[in-house]
Amino acid sequence: MIRPYAGDAGKIITLGLIITRDVETSTPNVGVYRLQLQSKTTMTVHWLSVRGGARHLRKSAEAGKKLEIAIALE
Questions:
Q1: Contacts 24+ apart (CB under 8 A), 20-26
Q2: d(Cα 35, Cα 16) in Å, to the nearest integer?
Q3: Where are the domains of the chain?
Q4: What confidence score (pLDDT) does residue 16 get?
Q5: What is the pLDDT of residues 7-50, one digit of tens each?
Q6: Model's pTM, two decimal places?
Q7: φ and ψ of 35, to 5 deg
């Protein structure tokens, strides 16, 4: 994990593969998103609003469900 800028709120992972699944169709999405460490047990995903992961997040929120994600790192 790196902290590229001193002003960043936390360390980041720049090439994490984020795997999500559409809550209605179960269609998977795999995308590369920046992850920022918030605490020992939480991270923030920097979603791109026009990509599949963000679409899955919006649909989950509209359905009143949490979006389950998996993160793959090498």
A1: 20/52, 20/53, 20/56, 20/57, 20/67, 20/68, 20/69, 21/56, 21/68, 22/55, 22/56, 22/59, 23/56, 23/59, 23/60, 23/63, 23/65, 23/67, 24/59, 24/63
A2: 7
A3: 12-72
A4: 83
A5: 777 788 888 899 999 999 999 999 999 898 888 898 889 888 89
A6: 0.80
A7: -115, 135
